[in-house]
Specification:
Blueprint lengths: L34 H11 L2 H22 L2 H33 L2
Amino acid sequence: MATPGPVIPEVPFGPSKPPVIEGLSPTVHGDPETFKEKFLRKTRENPVVPIGCLATVSALTYGLYSFYRGNSRRSQLMMRTRIAAQGFTVTALLLGLAVTAMKSRP
């Protein structure tokens, strides 16, 4: 019986070239999206989220203003409204995510 020689592991890819990953395109996009373009695209994809964000900020601002003016009843109402608006925004985000996931399925 012959004794086996030293085992040399086979290198899966050479260090001079990147590995080939199935489904991944190594090309670099020539024209990156600006912040404004991305914001407008995302707003078109899910228009309810910016509305919820605006409602949240409005309720917070008015609630803080009411607190500053000493109107504690109105301030409490606006803080509760802010919580509801935040819940609406998070729900809109999750529903938008689910819809996007369903669209990408074959």
